Amino acid sequence: METSITDENPTLELSRPDIEAPKPGMLLKIEKHLSKPGYRKALDAGTIGFFLFLIIGPLFSIIFAVIFNWNGIYTSVFNDPITGNVQGQIMFTALGRSFEIATIATCIDLLLGLPMAFILTRYNFKGRKILDTLVDLPMAVPTSALGFSLYLFWGTNMGLSGLLGLQTGIISPGPMLITFTHVAFTYPFIVRNLKVIFQETSKTYEDAAKTLGAPGFTVFRTVTIPLAKEGILAGIILAFTRSLGETGATIIVAGVFETAPVYVVSLKQSLHFPAAAFLSMILISISLIALVFLRVFARRVGFPISKVWPKAERKLSTKPARFSRNVLGLALFVVIVLVPALYTIPFVIEYFSVNPFTHDSTNTVLASLFAADNKWAWLWVSSITSLEIASLATVICVLFGLPMAMILVKRPWGRFKDLLDALVDVPLVAPTAALGFAMYLFWGPMGLNVFQPGFWLIILVHVAMCFPYVVRPIVAIIQKTDPELEDAARTLGANSITTFRTITLPRMQPGIVAGMIMSFTRSMGETGATIVVSGLITTVPLIIVQWFETSSFAAAGFASLILILFSFIVLLLLRKTMERS
Amino acid sequence: MPRIELEHVTKTFDEGKVVASDDVTLAIDEGEFVFLLGPSGCGKTTLLRLVAGLVPPSSGQILIDGIDIGKVNPEDRSIGFVFQNFQIFPSMTVFENVSYGLVVHGYDDETTEKITVEALCLVKLENRMMAYPKELSAPELQKVGLARAIATRSKILFLDEPLGKLDPKIRKSFRHELRRLIKTLGLTAIQVTHDQEEAMSIADRIIVMRKGKIMQYGKPEDLYYNPNSIFTANFFGETNFLEGYVSNVQPGECTFHLHLGGPKIHIQLPAGHDFKNGSEAIIGYRVEDIELIEQHETGEITSNDQDSENMPRLNTVKGIIKDMMFIGPMRRFMIQLENGDEIQTKHSSKFLIEFKKGQDVLVGFHERPMVFLYPADLRYELSKA
User: Fold this and answer.
1) Could you report the per-residue pLDDT of B60-84, keeping only the tens digit for each?
2) Do B108 and A35 touch (CB under 8 A)?
């Protein structure tokens, strides 16, 4: 850049003093006005108020409700004049089972998920992208549809046993099938988490360990795992709490067996409010403890790495060992997760118009949808309701999630901000049935008496449930953006609102879209929380449960398929926007 | 052409644990091109950000043309800022980036386009107008950053290590263009760098900073020849520091005793010094200021310096050449003095007598070294942080 212009061209436009003064348009004027710190403070206060009052308040109020009504609750749970402490016993048995199932499911998840995450991040092969999508697929299947799908696959003669020529299902509803369902349902969460962690830990550390003579398995155990420690723990806790709180799928595959969140639903349905409140409080407290553990202690947990067993680990690192690990990881994924989760699709196709056993139209999709009880109309209405709820909840989440994310990244509030940051994750780990019941107690006839069970209470519950799903990706993307980019805009003369509109918002767009899609699919598929507060309203997941309970399998399958298709389209959109960013 | 003044400006981070700016008072005149120089983390960038309004000061006043701008938002301060990491808006083309400042000010389209094109012409990027940042090289990105900052017609330009991310070769040609551009537009400019050579070659004045404090502020020649601290002396050029004590203190001169019973040399003292007989002191010689003299058996001496008659009278000390290095136009010697001190010297390869490794030589120290009282913590003074 030679600046020889000066001599030939002494009147530079850039240094002309008489240039016409700028005339800012309406938009710029409004933005300048809104840039005053007062507005920002008001927005911050509004956002935090919304968050604390609508999301956190009801959750915590249940703890106080239990404490203040302790005598009544004690009597009805442990000291009933007729049943004695039977209810308490059932409750603790259910809790114990939930813990067992969650623990086993998480362990299986880890065993299956570690090799898969490793394959997806450390190997480069044709079709890796497809495998990646397949791993995420079960996430797109709403839980009640997933439960139904697994029930069909394992539990009836229309699934695997049909293929094998057996008359009855292989696994009947109960703890075993619940565990299978929870594995299928939490698997994508844990793989996703591990994948991100492995991607972030640089491969150069592993290479360094290899040049020092460590065999592959030793490298993985002593270098990769300790580096990924926090992420692995986060994945474990997320999978564990999700399994502990799962309702929608569990209701279907549980049979007469009851897990803690399913018991909350049945207590609420049978109007045993004190017991429901007590159990909800316990579930919420457990998830809070898990969250505190994750936040405070996760960093201090150590993995034993001091000892190395060179011979054994070298054997585990040989080519055949690696090969069998990869094949086993893939095969188990296909058999335990992928096929059962998507089994509804072939089922609906097979049973669409002709029953393959009887070769007539009994129990086919068409027949049961258009029977005298007009199931198709019901499905139509619930689909609209589901869509309305999911859209509205998502919009509310974004409206408040955006300023919340800004607060979490930008405000210099120290401890208070750390607390807010932790609280945002609470709905992520709280069991949705307990969350729904807490909301019902807070807003319903026994609390503030503002909302009756129905449309608006469902919206409130879904907003609370989806809020972290919207906030987290936006926070992640703001953190990745260099704040100096905004500084640059400021020094060029843009006020804070103009900077937000022209610089920050376009940067955040992929995060917002990702959050919206997550929230939308979550809301579309949610069962546990919706059942508790639905009143007379039905959504598609509720219909699946109802039709399942009345053994209208073909119609339930079709409803599942609609839900799956919808979520799948949305998931594809998610991946597209992720790739574009 | 505005004038910038700082009065007792202090900025602390992390509840006072980190002091990025420690009671800074200074004035930058209209149209001056000033360099902020110092080791990484000494608070150079923070000082720029304070004046630009990107961080609020903990205390103190910042004035532009005599007006306190403490309450003025950064967007209203009219200070162009070029960032080290460029910070070109990734979603906008080069043209949109450069015109951004004009658009958000509300200039009409015609003026905006005229000025934007002119700014792009000034940095020779007019043919890359429609390119997106990801298609540009680092030097091109930095030019966009520069064009974007000057297109706002601000009369003050801050440059935060603008050349730091560029290749050394490009950096050298770039810096003179930068100076010419700034002078053409008549801007008051402050540039941050940790490259002392860059600062020396194009600055009107240089501010040397350390740990948030201003160590020295002056013209490049002043800083080089009259540093007021061991730190500044060490920061510019290459310096040999010799420890010892003074005796025979008289107005303007004294005798310096090299430590460990080393030889005495006669030196001149600056006016207003605090030396007393017996004061411990440090003297500094630039590597290029020390003579190497060959002593023949006949007692005759020859020096490598062609102008030795014009130099001040030399003190000679015996030494031995421990090692030598050839670095293109220069030759570098490691010499051990008779008291054990090791020094380095640098001479033009062209006129050099054939010195050999292990050879005994006379080392010539002139009478005007940099003289400092022995500091409380010499290691700290010599550290680069």
Assistant:
1) 999 999 999 988 999 999 999 999 9
2) no
